[in-house]
Structures are given as structure tokens and as C-alpha cells.
Amino acid sequence: MRALPRAARALLAAGACLLLAAAVLVPLTLSGGGSGDGAVTGAGNAAATAQPASGRRWVGSWEAADQLGRTVDLRGRTVRMTMRVTLGGSAVRVRLSNSFGTDPLRIGAATVAYRQADAGAVPGTVRRLRFSGNPSVTVPAGGRLVSDAVPLDVPARATLAVSLYLPSFRGQPTSHGTWGSSHAMTYLAAGDRTGELPAAAFRVIRPAWYFVDGIDVAADDPSAGAVVVLGDSITDGTGSTLDADRRWPDLLYDRIAAEDPRLARRTAVLNAGIAGNRVMSEAGHSVAALDRLDGDVLDRSGVREVVVLLGTNDIGNGLANAGVVEQGLAEVARRARDRGLRVVAATLTPARGTRYGHGTAWAEAQRDEVNRWIRAATRQGTFDGMVDFASVVRDPKRPSRLNPAFNSGDWLHPNDAGYRAMAAAVPLRLLGERDDSGGSARATVGSGTARR
User: Fold this and answer.
1) Closest by CA position to 66, among listed 143, 148, 147, 171
2) What is the reported pTM?
3) What are the TM regions of this chain, as residue ranges (predicted)?
4) What is the pLDDT of residue 4?
5) Structural domain boundaries in the chain
């Protein structure tokens, strides 16, 4: 399992949270051979290497990075979770994770469907998930697995409902959002309700995703790939509107769809942000970014680029100076590029005025130094591109602070408008494009105006 230090485990003790679902009521399978893309570990199921129909490839279309969650009692209950995918496809498979588990996780049944209103599922779209042909599965402690593929035409930006029936789970789950929010609604019902269409049996619980950390689609374009955004609470969407898909990676895909439909048909955007995450050290409920890089980025299906926005919490908590953060970011870039990925670095956003440690004069000086290094390192080739979020969201009159129009209330996290400005600043030519020389296209944004 992904171990946290004993002190962190003691910190993570009580509370209640939520669940997740993944299933299909029509047990169909797809033909195909093997694919190395995004192979998952821990369970050894054949679906991890199954390939979709000829001419298509598996690409991650939605992600939630694993965290060790608050204690919750889900025995004999169905958790229905909602997820908005990015790239569409003709089939889906759902990734399950027990990476923080100390005991095997029993999934009694699982389904996936189009979400209707609230916890409702659209009639005719419910598909029961199977695992190596079986309707139930046990995920080993510390393990991950992927469901068999099921045919389901999923449009780009469709919202799916994944339901999991958990016969016996009580404890601290592998989840996302239990210490903050998943920014999407989660629902709970007694008994196995995975195949149920109406919302009446379900009640709302705290927004979180349980035991599901990814959804792959069979992309129609064989050149399709995924952009993974590795970040902290600013990527995770703290300060954005609940259940509205207004985190900046969500809005980035919306922008791609509006401005470049061709790119949107072959590009997914995956959000690997975790509130409180650091580059170099564990943060109570999550492991360091360097330690989760393989599972949350490099091993995702069809990953092509990674955008990195990290370092704020290392500095804000007084755990690292600029030089240490720079070393960590350079290591992220090295490991990702060794796997053939393009790497885009993002400058750290201002935080003066916040009540947190991120707003001290020392933290501001470290942040400025990291940002100068990111700009220089991009010119020197450490990164394939850069997006200057610091310039985009700062107050023009007081650049050490967020623009008041972008402040969610704590002077650290942007609001919906701030996240929209960040999404508008990402150079689209870095996503899925190569320059004529065959090398990685490089681009920067310094003024807040998006460039192609």
C-alpha cells in the first residue's frame, strides 16, 4: 500500500465521507488484443492490457488522484459518484484503487451510466461492470485494477454516474476529496442499488470519490492522448463552484473544445491535483508529488503531456526553500521526459494577504525565486513550455496579491473567474502538437494573453 508516516496516519482519524461507483447492466465485452498503455497494477486482471476495437486506443478521460480518506462506514451500501469526462469514446473501462488500503476491498457490484438529474441514471445507458468476466471483485490491499471494457458511446464532456456496492467496507478509504471536496456530487443508498435508475433511493453525502481513480475511453482517433495536470488545491479546484466543473483543467478542456475541435477530438485533460500536495514531502493525507508521479501521471492510459503547478505548499508550510522546490520540479521533468512526455511548467500564483503561511514575506520571496527559475529553465530546455499563471492572476497594482476579481475569499485560491483566466492562458500549441523539426514545441505566456 502507499504508506503514510505514522504521525500522518494519526492525523487522519475520524469523519465520514463518501463513495464511488463503476458498473454496467449489460455484460458485453469488446474484442481486441493487448495494449501496454496505462497498465494497472496489484490485481493482475487481463483487462489492464486489453485493447479496444481496431483503430482505437485507450486514453484516460477522467482522473481523481488517490488520497487516504476519513473513516467512513459504507457496509451494505451503494455509493453513486458523478464524473465529467473530457475526451469521448465508444467504450469505457473504470479504474479501481485500494492503494491506501490495509485490507482487501470487496466490490459486490458496479455500474456506469449517463447521469440524469441528481443521482438519477439515464434509462438505457446503465452498464454493469465486470472484472475478468465476474460481476464482483476483490481489490488487494495496496492494489489497483481496471474493469473489463464495456460498449457505451460517451460524448466528450459527458457526465457519468459510477456506482459501487460495498458489502463490508468500514475504515479509511482510498478516495479523493474527503479532506476537502471532490467538487462533484456524491450519493449514498442502502443495499445494492447499482442498477437503479431513479434518484429517490439515494441521499446526498459529502462530495468525494471513493475507490475510483480513473475512467478510460476507447478513443476513435488512434493519435489521441491525455494531458495530465499535476498540482495541489489550485488544480484540485478549491474555491470553484460545486458540481459545476469549473476547476481550471475542466475549463481548459472546454476552451479546447470551443477553439480547436480537431484538437479536442484527440486530447483528454486529466486532473491529478490534490489539496495540500507538495513536491517533496507528504502532506498528512497525500504522498509527495514525486512519490505519486508514476501512478497518477506516468502510468495513465495514453498520457502525452504533463502540466506541473506545484511548490506553493512546500514553501507556504515552511518545509522547503526555493532551491529545494526547483530540484523537485526538475526531477519531475526528468522522469516524465524519460518516458517520452512533454512537460509544461506553471509559475506559482501570488498569495500575500492570505491568513496561511503562504502569504508571508519569506514565502513571497521564495515564490518569486521559483518563478524566475521556471522561466529561465524553460528557456534552457528543462521544460518543453511554460505558462505564467503568476502574471495572469496577479493584481496589476499589487503583484504579490491575487487580482481582487479572481479572489475566492482567502487570497490564496482563485474563484471561477480566476480559474477561467488560468485556462485561457495555456498555450494550446503545447498540447498534442510537434514543431516541424520533430522536437517538442516550446511556448510561453507572460502577459496573460493566450497564444497559439
Assistant:
1) 143
2) 0.87
3) none
4) 47
5) 6-214, 223-430
Q: What is the spatial distance between Cα 229 and Cα 104, in angstroms, rounded to a whole number?
A: 30
Beta pairing class for 57-63 and 212-219:
antiparallel
What is the predicted pLDDT for the residue at 26?
34
Q: Cα dihedral angle (145, 151, 152, 155), rounded to 10 degrees?
A: 90
Rounded Cα gap, residues 414 and 425, in angstroms:
14
Question: What topology is assigned to 223-430 in CATH?
Answer: Rossmann fold (3.40.50)
In terms of Cβ atoms closer than 10 Å to its own Cβ (0-12, 13-18, 19+), residue 40 is: buried
Per-residue pLDDT tens for 270-296?
Answer: 999 999 999 999 886 789 999 999 999
Find the angle CA(262)-CA(154)-CA(175) to the nearest 5 degrees: 110
CA distance 375 to 386: 7
Separation of alpha carbons 295 and 298, rounded Å: 6
Give the phi and the psi of residue 298 in degrees, each rounded to 5.
-65, -30
Distance of alpha carbon 211 from alpha carbon 276, whole angstroms: 20
Evaluate whether 392 touches 382 at the Cβ level (below 8 Å).
no
Residue of 287, 233, 300 lying closest to 48 (CA atoms): 300
Strand ranges of the sheet holding 267-273, from the earlier edge strand across to the other edge: 267-273, 225-231, 303-309, 342-346, 385-387
The Cβ-side half-sphere exposure at 257, using a 13 Å CA radius, reads 16
For residues 312-320, average pLDDT: 93
Interatomic CA distance for residues 3 and 286, integer angstroms? 10
Cell readout for 245 is 466543473
Q: Rounded CA gap, 107 and 122, in Å?
A: 23
